[in-house]
TrEMBL record:
UniProt similarity note: Belongs to the UPF0065 (bug) family.
Species of origin: Anaerotignum neopropionicum
UniProt keyword Cell division, yes or no: no
Entries under InterPro entries matching the protein: BUG (IPR005064), Bug_dom1 (IPR042100)
Signal peptide annotation: 1-22
Keywords assigned by UniProt, alphabetized: Receptor, Signal
Record keyword Oxidoreductase present: no
A Pfam family reported for this protein in Swiss-Prot or TrEMBL: TctC
Protein name: Tripartite tricarboxylate transporter family receptor
């Protein structure tokens, strides 16, 4: 099935509880045209070693996307190293990145949790204004996933009805993280509750699901795709406006009567005080890397959607999402007092 490189206005984050939002995307091809007329870069990164912080455990979707992007961009640096700093639902690693030297040598893969954790009140002082965004890289919807041989659950309705009388242990990537909010939003729409089990990234939750220690997960399809292909897991529904191209037989939650559309985004950022000319050079490097054949192939094969936004558009997206999730979290009663 033909895959595609997605450059859209923005992914929907709408549900009955929250108004949908949009942000303006910028095509990487436009950036290339602009780059041709730029003055020589203020920083020659070919002589610099750079660290890319991933605020989650190795093996999850954020980690694999960052590593693929770093590999595609490695020719532009003396060296680029990916460092996992997990903890506190992503806050630990993002705080480390925000507080790094503002010289462009420490890049952080920021995720939607940059806004959800602040809205929850569990961010340990983290806020998006501590960063200067470089670009948004990709987006993904939540996929409600269970073990393939679990005969209790063959439809989304099976999960929701079972949870009302028996409870349902739903794994996610940490308290206040997007997969926690996605599952909580679905539960509210269905007038039920899940027992939320948090991990420092989706990989641990998926491991425990495979081991039968929890009942299901609400993570991106890309993070479970290999286990679906191997026959170990099955996806019952996706929290998106439309069915996913990779799994066209899996319905959306909306098709079952639950208007819940929630997902993540991932992008690159540096400390807020970083000089703009340094940010511009990093944008040039990584936007070209995001168009490279190797990166596009990886993203397509791993069922990840490429969605590029330039720095200003990405920052506007963060500001809008903070408003959106603040309203959602208050409505769900999840804000930490």
């Amino acid at each position: 099935m033909k895959k595609f490189l997605k450059r859209t206005i923005g992914i929907a984050l709408s549900m009955t509880l929250v108004a949908s939002l949009a942000a303006c995307g910028t095509k990487a091809s436009d950036a290339n045209a602009d780059a041709g007329s730029q003055e020589p870069a203020a920083v020659d990164f070919s002589k610099e070693s750079v660290t890319a912080i991933v605020p989650y455990d190795a093996g999850g979707g954020t980690d694999t996307v960052m590593r693929a992007l770093a590999d595609a961009a490695k020719g532009s640096f003396k060296n680029i190293t990916v460092e996992n700093r997990s903890g506190a639902g992503g806050a630990t690693g993002m705080l480390a990145g925000a507080n790094a030297a503002a010289d462009g040598k420490t890049i952080t893969m920021t995720t939607v949790e940059l806004t959800t954790l602040e809205a929850m009140g569990t961010n340990a002082g983290l806020t998006y204004s501590q960063f200067k965004p470089i670009m948004m890289v990709n987006s993904a919807a939540s996929a409600i996933t269970v073990k393939a041989d679990d005969t209790r659950f063959n439809t989304l309705e099976d999960v929701l009805e079972y949870s009302k009388s028996n409870g349902f242990q739903m794994g996610n990537s940490g308290n206040g993280a997007i997969w926690h909010l996605a599952a909580a939003g679905l539960a509210k729409a269905a007038d039920t509750q899940f027992t939320h089990v948090g991990y420092d990234g989706a990989a641990g939750a998926i491991t425990d699901l495979l081991g039968g220690h929890i009942d299901g997960v609400a993570v991106s399809y890309a993070e479970v795709a290999n286990y679906v292909a191997s026959g170990d897991l099955k996806v019952l529904a996706v929290l998106s406006d439309n069915r996913l191209e990779a799994i066209p037989d899996v319905p959306t939650a909306k098709e079952s009567g639950y208007d819940v559309v929630l997902g993540t985004w991932r992008g690159l950022a540096v400390p807020a005080a970083t000089p703009q000319e340094v940010v511009d050079e990093l944008y040039r490097i990584f936007s070209e890397a995001a168009q490279s054949e190797d990166f596009v192939t990886f993203m397509n094969n791993s069922n990840n959607v490429i969605e590029i936004m330039d720095g200003p558009s990405y920052e506007a997206r963060m500001a809008k999402d903070l408003e959106t999730y603040t309203a959602l979290i208050e409505d769900l009663g999840l804000k930490v007092q």
